[in-house]
């Protein structure tokens, strides 16, 4: 039951009717212990995140290393427990689920990992790898399993499926390995797909192919997809809305094309400036981007967490108080004092 | 008076083949190119095209299973392939040319402080005393933008971007004329990557260093390229000025590569290249790209020569 609807004035996207996934004031803090037992502070990996995902929507979560996107994703997959706040899937609060219901939840969420080779056991062949989720979820009939495996391999364009079943991961190319990982994520007919940097370890020329595959799977199965990446140039081919994360918080949320054409938050502008399109002119100029690195999540800066690096910082305001979410376009939001 | 050779490096018919249980891997197969001083050439290609092997071949960093290693490498006027290993080690490697290897940040020695690691080349190749070498290391740290108090830290205390800068400092500390970088930013974040490229651009103009950058990321390569060289299945199939390459590449493979790059701006949708590069063991005869090429015709069963057009090179029968 969607009881805990956020009381914060969420000027961003209106609460969706029956969203597929709802993240409410999520906080994921990891405790640091000195000498194994003495409390030494918290790593505030996810520090107050709110959003909704519609049933057949693709959203991108963009941010650099250490912004909390992986911790957020792991909490959605129930690999981390929230310190506070809730993950709500189809109206059910995940943390409150018992083991059977949790198993069902897990079969409803597919996970595509970043490193295709690392995601698969090297001693299992493709058939065994794909059978595993089916066996765990109680599909007993071997013929049924084989049929489902063949079907999903055809869907990821690995045909004829029979040729690939006896192969081992090391016998496949990077692109093929990632297709098997996607097949494994899809085999239980999930409603939600979480893809964590699914193409960043693949060659640049193969990335487009895999993203196109994910996009066509999304359309065909009406999946909700969370695409996590730090590569902005791929986002417009595979997402509708984009969430920019910095130091554990979402600092801007917009429709993709609007964000690219008219970024609001200075950090978003820096990310766009730092992304290159292939153009010989680039070699003649220096990029104007903030120096330094994302802050520690143990002691984040006071006020707006980007203020130490922000070229547009307002002294007396930005370092003192964390900005609220201001409306940007009809559906977007930006957490920046420039838009008061 | 003899004009100083304006070319920092000239590579002729460089070959590096490896012996493996499955056969001979023809990783670098008669590669030719040159680089003028103060310029950067970017070598692009898919995984397994031989680009990292090319870096090793140029620097003579060879594994044990070499089956053939031949050709000529001219550094300014000196032909280095003729030198024996000891002379090469003393005079060339890390003196005239150095390398920032792939995932360099993970290649730092975890039990030695980073300052000492950057100082080491000065002690080994120039016989500096430790104190003096550490001073040089400090200067390098300032050049690459690592805070000077990090001199006494260990690699695990630095972030990925900082470690990559340390690796860069290590390659530059002996003021070589040429630095080869193999995928220098592939594991780094966007902003860190952009900062590293800003740094490389400054070095190109301020320190007069030439660069050979090896990468599969075509978009980022445009940040520093004066020239672009494309490798496919162990061979160089196109060398073009950056201006021309990013607007109008010649070789059909280059065209497909450029079309497969996702972009932030513009209306074209990227297209992927069907099929896969051939294995480097027993590569096909004739043009190695023929079976994936939309413009293949009957001449392509023979290996095309390298054609020279306006100072650029293209290995394709379409340009006969």
Give me some keywords for this one.
heterodimer; A: 340 residues; alpha/beta; 8-stranded mixed β-sheet; 4-stranded antiparallel β-sheet; globular; disordered N terminus; B: 320 residues; Rossmann fold
Description:
The complex is a heterodimer of chains A (340) and B (320). Chain A is of the alpha/beta class. Chain A has a domain at 17-90 and 193-214 and 226-277 and 290-340: P-loop containing nucleotide triphosphate hydrolases (Rossmann fold, 3-Layer(aba) Sandwich), CATH 3.40.50.300. Chain A is 29% helix and 23% strand. In chain A, the strands form two sheets. An eight-stranded mixed β-sheet of chain A has the order 6-7-8-3-9-10-12-11. Chain A has a four-stranded antiparallel β-sheet with strand order 2-1-4-5. Chain B is of the alpha/beta class and 320 residues long. Chain B has one domain (7-96, 176-319): P-loop containing nucleotide triphosphate hydrolases (Rossmann fold, 3-Layer(aba) Sandwich). An eight-stranded mixed β-sheet of chain B has the order 6-7-8-3-9-10-12-11, with helices on both faces. In chain B, strands 2-1-4-5 form a four-stranded antiparallel β-sheet. In chain B, helix 5 crosses helix 6 (160-172). Chain B is globular. Chain A binds chain B through residues 64-65, 173-174, 203-209, 211-212, 230-234, 236-237, 260, 270-280, 282-283, 286-287, 289-291, 293, and chain B through 40, 46-47, 145, 159-161, 189-195, 197-198, 201-202, 216-226, 242-243, 245-247, 256-258, 260-266, 269-273, 276.
Q: What best-fitting shape of chain B do the alpha-carbon axes yield?
A: globular
* CATH architecture verdict of chain B: 3-Layer(aba) Sandwich
What is the assembly state of the chains in this entry? heterodimer
**β content of chain B, as a range?**
15-25%
Secondary-structure-derived class of chain B? alpha/beta
Number of strands of chain B: 12
Q: Give the helix level of chain B as a range of percent.
A: 25-40%
Record field, number of beta strands of chain A: 12
Major sheet description of chain B: 8 strands, mixed
Order of helices and strands of chain B: EEEHEEHEHHHHEHEHEEHHEE
Measured by DSSP, the beta-strand proportion of chain A falls in: 15-25%
Q: How many H/I helical runs of chain A?
A: 10
Give the strand order of the largest sheet of chain A, numbering strands 1, 2, ... along the chain. 6-7-8-3-9-10-12-11
CATH uppermost class of the domain at 17-90 and 193-214 and 226-277 and 290-340 in chain A: Alpha Beta
| CA radius of gyration of chain B | 20 Å
């Amino acid at each position: 039951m969607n009881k805990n609807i956020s009381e914060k004035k969420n000027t961003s996207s209106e609460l969706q009717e029956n969203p597929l996934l709802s993240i409410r004031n999520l906080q994921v803090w990891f405790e640091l212990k000195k000498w194994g037992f003495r409390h030494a502070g918290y790593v505030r990996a996810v520090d107050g995140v709110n959003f909704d995902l519609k049933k057949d929507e693709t959203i991108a979560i963009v941010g650099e290393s250490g912004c909390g996107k992986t911790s957020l994703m792991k909490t959605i997959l129930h690999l981390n427990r929230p310190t506070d706040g809730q993950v709500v899937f189809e109206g059910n609060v995940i943390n409150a689920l018992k083991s059977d219901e949790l198993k069902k939840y897990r079969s409803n969420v597919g996970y595509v990992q970043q490193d295709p080779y690392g995601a698969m056991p090297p001693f299992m062949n493709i058939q065994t790898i794909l059978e595993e989720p089916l066996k765990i979820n109680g599909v007993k009939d071997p013929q049924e399993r084989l049929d489902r495996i063949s079907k999903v391999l055809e869907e990821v364009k690995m045909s004829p499926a029979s040729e690939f079943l006896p192969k081992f991961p090391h016998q496949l190319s990077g692109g093929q390995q990632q297709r098997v990982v996607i097949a494994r994520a899809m085999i239980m007919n999930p409603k939600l797909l979480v893809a964590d940097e699914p193409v960043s370890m693949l060659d640049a020329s193969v990335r487009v192919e895999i993203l196109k595959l994910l996009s066509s799977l999304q359309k065909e199965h009406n999946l909700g997809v969370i695409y996590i990446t730090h590569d902005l140039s791929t986002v417009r081919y595979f997402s509708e809305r984009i969430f920019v994360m910095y130091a554990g918080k979402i600092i801007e949320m917009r429709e993709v094309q609007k964000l690219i054409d008219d970024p609001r938050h200075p950090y978003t502008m820096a990310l766009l400036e730092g992304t290159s399109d292939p153009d010989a002119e680039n070699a003649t100029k220096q990029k104007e981007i903030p120096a330094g690195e994302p802050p520690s999540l143990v002691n984040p800066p006071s006020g707006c967490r980007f203020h130490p690096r922000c070229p547009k910082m307002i002294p007396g305001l930005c370092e003192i108080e964390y900005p609220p979410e201001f409306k940007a376009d009809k559906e977007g939001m930006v957490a920046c004092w420039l838009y008061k | 008076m003899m004009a100083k050779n304006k070319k920092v490096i000239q590579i002729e018919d460089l070959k590096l083949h490896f012996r493996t249980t499955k056969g001979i891997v023809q990783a670098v197969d008669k590669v030719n190119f040159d680089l003028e001083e103060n310029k950067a050439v970017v070598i692009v290609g898919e995984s397994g095209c031989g680009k990292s092997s090319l870096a090793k071949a140029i620097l003579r960093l060879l594994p044990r299973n070499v089956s053939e290693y031949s050709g000529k490498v001219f550094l300014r006027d000196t032909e280095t392939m003729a030198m024996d290993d000891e002379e090469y080690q003393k005079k060339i490697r890390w003196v005239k040319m150095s390398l920032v290897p792939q995932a360099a940040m993970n290649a730092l020695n975890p039990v030695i402080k980073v300052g000492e690691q950057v100082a080491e080349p000065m002690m080994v190749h120039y016989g500096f005393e430790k104190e003096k070498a550490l001073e040089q290391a400090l200067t390098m740290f300032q050049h690459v933008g690592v805070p000077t108090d990090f001199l006494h830290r260990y690699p695990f205390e630095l972030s990925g971007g900082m470690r990559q800068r340390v690796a860069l400092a290590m390659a530059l500390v002996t003021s070589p004329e040429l630095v080869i970088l193999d995928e220098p930013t592939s594991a780094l974040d966007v902003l860190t990557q952009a900062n590293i490229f800003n740094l490389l651009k400054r070095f190109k103009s301020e320190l007069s260093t030439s660069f050979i950058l090896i990468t599969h990321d075509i978009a980022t390569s445009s940040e520093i390229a004066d020239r672009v060289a494309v490798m496919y299945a162990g061979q160089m199939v196109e060398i073009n000025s950056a201006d021309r390459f990013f607007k109008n590449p010649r070789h059909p493979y280059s065209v497909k590569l450029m079309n497969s790059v996702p972009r932030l701006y513009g209306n074209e949708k990227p297209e992927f290249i069907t099929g896969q590069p051939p294995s480097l063991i027993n590569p096909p005869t004739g043009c190695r790209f023929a079976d994936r090429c939309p413009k293949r015709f009957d001449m392509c069963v023979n290996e095309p020569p390298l054609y020279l057009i306006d100072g650029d090179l293209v290995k394709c029968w379409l340009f006969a």
